[in-house]
């Protein structure tokens, strides 16, 4: 079968012109409604009546909800086309999508050509995701309707306030919820990005590809602001706990009779335990959020106390057991699940960005706090010095957190969660009648063709996304989750593994390397690590607000990988004496590039990953956490094993695996580059 024949069949099947005409018809109806409402508005300005003002405001809201449903119709069809074209790409092993878009965009009578005249095609993926419905014109139209609805609602609210009783409290000029919903829908369709979006992508808190309009109004009984703060505080304290020992781990190991490079095992012990704790905490969060957080706090309190007591007991075993206990208290999976399940959709992006910001702040505060704790004294038989104080400080912090958690956390109602599928009220049902028929019409394909496709999809078992109920169920095991991973997802997980490995090598061996080459003190190492941590937020502001709007995610991904590779190459010690500028500059290049890479990597991962991995115990966030944690374990083990060859060889030997994995990830990215959209 020739590709021209296939392209013609796809065009006929999808009935693009029918969909575009339907959109134009609905736009005309909405424009007529707005015109009539404006005429009523002008008449009310001459003879204002409270009842008519209220009725007019409801009329504008109805127009807003009609537009919102039309946007969901656009998104539904865009997702349908994307999945169909992805299937064609997979079956024919040819970039049919690129050919289809180019041929339709360049044709003088194409629907695409008509709508492309009205917008600058600078948004990432816009020519692909929305070629189905001519949605670019509706974006401009939606913005115009939003402006008209929002402006008139404000004017009517001010007008109504002028004629209320003097005893009535003045109404605050709050933006109507329908305006926020429309803006959110347009942002989701255009894949527009900003700082909060970019930061939220780091959390990999996945959502359904096409949420229903009613799902945006999550039950307020499940959201508790203080409980959200407690989850963010848990994230912050855990990251502080992870990195507070890095500047002093080598000295602590030597004080107990071990080599300085044993710090790799000491630091990595926490990551080893986290590999297992992530799974059971994720499963536990299916039943409760409060109990896992309490358990986490208790285990972390005990673990830090054991870490601090190891000095007076002169026991390396106690030291390692303390770090293992800290790893078993990692509740990041619970923090993610709480944000995903219990935070309203309208602020979920801010909560996700807060999760990432708390992690970044903890990463910077940990080493900085270690640099401050340079004191030495004893109370009875307990020693308090630069090596033990991180353990004592974190033990006290977790005890305080536990008390706060016990009295302030509110366990979300499980009944609400089980019945969180919203049911429309009678009034909402009446509002939906206008566009309900349009949403139910088989505009993509006929009902017979849809039935045939469903039967074919069920018989294929080729890993593609079916529309059956079975295909919508979450993964029930690691094995079933792994079977859902496409080559693109595997490559993204490899990239995540690579960047976490490179960052862990840089951070964990910093104390040993800088002491050997530059004779840095603990305070100097702490300042260096804190400065690296403080670059996270500024870098993400620049990338999220500017760079990601100028280039495609996959372009930024590949460029960031290359820069990480450059940073690794510059870090090697060859021939010339190793200098502070070389180490600092190469480390900064590697760390900053890895931070940029992480955000773009998780953004792409959330798009190419199956929607079945957006919920359940074995979700996408758990898989990425496991990949990153395993990378940290292997990196810390590499540092310890390389230490047997001497500190003079440590730097180059630990950088070689980083370089090899980075080169492999770049090659894998090039291999799957055309599927990253």
Automatic annotation (TrEMBL):
<dbReference type="InterPro" id="IPR036259">
    <property type="entry name" value="MFS_trans_sf"/>
</dbReference>
<feature type="transmembrane region" description="Helical">
    <location>
        <begin position="389"/>
        <end position="407"/>
    </location>
</feature>
<dbReference type="InterPro" id="IPR004331">
    <property type="entry name" value="SPX_dom"/>
</dbReference>
<keyword id="KW-0472">Membrane</keyword>
<feature type="transmembrane region" description="Helical">
    <location>
        <begin position="493"/>
        <end position="518"/>
    </location>
</feature>
<feature type="transmembrane region" description="Helical">
    <location>
        <begin position="355"/>
        <end position="377"/>
    </location>
</feature>
<dbReference type="InterPro" id="IPR011701">
    <property type="entry name" value="MFS"/>
</dbReference>
<keyword id="KW-0812">Transmembrane</keyword>
<feature type="region of interest" description="Disordered">
    <location>
        <begin position="446"/>
        <end position="472"/>
    </location>
</feature>
<feature type="transmembrane region" description="Helical">
    <location>
        <begin position="650"/>
        <end position="674"/>
    </location>
</feature>
<dbReference type="GO" id="GO:0022857">
    <property type="term" value="F:transmembrane transporter activity"/>
</dbReference>
<keyword id="KW-1133">Transmembrane helix</keyword>
<dbReference type="Pfam" id="PF07690">
    <property type="entry name" value="MFS_1"/>
</dbReference>
<feature type="domain" description="SPX">
    <location>
        <begin position="1"/>
        <end position="102"/>
    </location>
</feature>
<feature type="transmembrane region" description="Helical">
    <location>
        <begin position="556"/>
        <end position="576"/>
    </location>
</feature>
<comment type="similarity">
    <text>Belongs to the major facilitator superfamily.</text>
</comment>
<dbReference type="GO" id="GO:0009705">
    <property type="term" value="C:plant-type vacuole membrane"/>
</dbReference>
<protein>
    <recommendedName>
        <fullName>SPX domain-containing protein</fullName>
    </recommendedName>
</protein>
<dbReference type="GO" id="GO:1905011">
    <property type="term" value="P:transmembrane phosphate ion transport from cytosol to vacuole"/>
</dbReference>
<feature type="transmembrane region" description="Helical">
    <location>
        <begin position="316"/>
        <end position="334"/>
    </location>
</feature>
<feature type="transmembrane region" description="Helical">
    <location>
        <begin position="588"/>
        <end position="605"/>
    </location>
</feature>
<dbReference type="InterPro" id="IPR051068">
    <property type="entry name" value="MFS_Domain-Containing_Protein"/>
</dbReference>
<dbReference type="InterPro" id="IPR045264">
    <property type="entry name" value="SPXM_SPX_plant"/>
</dbReference>
<feature type="transmembrane region" description="Helical">
    <location>
        <begin position="524"/>
        <end position="544"/>
    </location>
</feature>
<feature type="transmembrane region" description="Helical">
    <location>
        <begin position="128"/>
        <end position="149"/>
    </location>
</feature>
<feature type="transmembrane region" description="Helical">
    <location>
        <begin position="293"/>
        <end position="310"/>
    </location>
</feature>
<dbReference type="Pfam" id="PF03105">
    <property type="entry name" value="SPX"/>
</dbReference>
<feature type="transmembrane region" description="Helical">
    <location>
        <begin position="258"/>
        <end position="281"/>
    </location>
</feature>
<feature type="transmembrane region" description="Helical">
    <location>
        <begin position="225"/>
        <end position="246"/>
    </location>
</feature>
<feature type="compositionally biased region" description="Acidic residues">
    <location>
        <begin position="449"/>
        <end position="468"/>
    </location>
</feature>
